[in-house]
Amino acid sequence: MSIPKQGDIYQIDLPELGSDRRGNVLVLSVTRYNTSQLIVAVPVLPKSYNILIQKPVIELDQKHIILSDQLKTVNYQNRKPRYVGTVPGEILLKVLGLVSQILGIR
Q1: For the chain, which domains are there?
Q2: What is the β-pairing status of strands 22-27 and 82-86?
Q3: In whole angstroms, what is the distance from residue 4 CA to residue 2 CA?
């Protein structure tokens, strides 16, 4: 398996959502960090979840949102990763900017 890159979207097992659940995540960590088999990522959910979520979200497209405040560190190799695609650079910059604001990083 290739090493995930910053801005990639992967579908992975998400056992915290229940057994046999899979979901998409956007990789925020840089490739050098990802060589450790860990990634820092945020969930990418169907837009229908937006009704239930009162937090800052970023629209990826007409069907998906990115939960920028739900940072997760996961061992991607243990979660049966499947590459889905890569977000446009401007979307990645918006997410990283919001994460920086949440963490107080300038």
Answers
A1: 8-103 (2.30.30.110)
A2: unpaired
A3: 6
